[in-house]
Design a protein that fits this description.
Oligomer: single chain
Largest sheet: none
Number of helices: 14
Number of strands: 0
């Protein structure tokens, strides 16, 4: 199997979007963010088996997960990382607040890391190429410190006062993300037992699910699926994650047209982020959407879409 991250990346990209590298405090935080939600999700499953769960708990889980996922795809990804559309400051703030509740870091760090990925996709210096292993692309890259928290690219993103505010207040959003569902449970039911159950389901389990759905775009959607468009990497369209990640699963579409506001290009490609933009656009809450024309899409099509072959060496087509 070929490797990418161990080789030397181009100096220009490495200087613009430098990795933070190995750092004890960072590694501890990342491991806790992965292990604690996993352990408590196992506890939640045990409670579910014993029916210690309410419709309020499940409603908070589904509702807050939808908000966080929508915030990631529209706020962090399409808007901040790629500038695929523009929005007034209040709308940007709402989208970034929703994304911040996912506990995936601040918008500038998230977007700068993602921009490095596109600049070096499946090449030396890519933060999370599956050519370095499926586990590396899913979670290992985070533990290794393959994140961008500084450099000229990060600084440019920080010039936006809305982005800067959410980058500087990450800890507050982490606390709010976990505690808020518990407070809702306490307010509705009036017991501390309801507080802890709602915190577990609407906070911790939700974070676990959002994280692994997001990370699967880096891993699964670079190994399993179709490649209708020509792209210089392993990005693939995966219908399951097209639904679960609100359009992010149409990853080959995205890598063919990175600055497109719409990730689903066909009527059957479910893209909830696109549908929300379609509702917001007539209200003038978003504008200047970048959308590839039919001619541009046709020009990038492969002659015959291919499915990822099975086997460890079948990542690249």
């Amino acid at each position: 199997m070929s490797t990418t991250s161990q080789a030397t990346p181009p100096a220009g990209v490495d200087a613009t979007y430098p990795f933070i590298g190995h750092h004890r405090g960072h590694r501890t935080a990342v491991i806790l963010a992965a292990v604690v939600p996993f352990a408590l999700t196992i506890l939640a499953i045990a409670l579910l088996w014993g029916r210690h769960v309410t419709w309020l708990d499940l409603g908070l889980l589904v509702g807050l997960q939808a908000l966080a996922t929508l915030g990631i795809t529209l706020g962090y990804h399409r808007m901040t990382a790629h500038g695929a559309f523009k929005a007034p400051a209040p709308v940007r703030a709402v989208l970034l607040a929703m994304a911040a509740m996912s506990i995936e870091g601040g918008p500038a760090s998230w977007a700068a890391t993602h921009r490095r990925h596109h600049a070096l996709s499946d090449k030396p210096g890519d933060p999370h190429s599956p050519l370095d292993g499926l586990w590396h692309s899913h979670f290992g890259w985070l533990a290794k410190g393959n994140l961008v928290h500084s450099g000229p690219g990060h600084e440019r993103l920080m010039r936006d006062p809305v982005v800067r505010f959410f980058e500087k207040t990450q800890l507050a959003w982490v606390v709010a993300s976990i505690v808020l569902p518990g407070l809702v449970g306490l307010a509705v039911v009036g017991t501390w037992g309801a507080f802890w159950q709602a915190l577990l389901w609407g906070g911790v389990v939700r974070v676990f699910l959002v994280h692994h759905i997001t990370w699967s775009i880096n891993s699964i959607c670079h190994t399993v699926g179709t490649r209708p468009y020509e792209s210089p990497d392993t990005a693939r369209n995966n219908a399951l994650f097209g639904v679960l990640a609100f359009g992010e699963g149409w990853h080959n579409n995205h890598h063919a047209f990175p600055d497109s506001a719409y990730l689903g290009h066909r009527w059957y490609q479910v893209d909830l982020g696109k549908y929300v933009l379609l509702m917001l656009r007539p209200l003038r809450l978003v504008h200047d959407l970048r959308i590839p024309t039919k001619q541009q899409q046709a020009a990038r099509l492969r002659k015959k879409p291919t499915k990822a072959p099975r086997g460890r060496r079948g990542i690249a087509a």
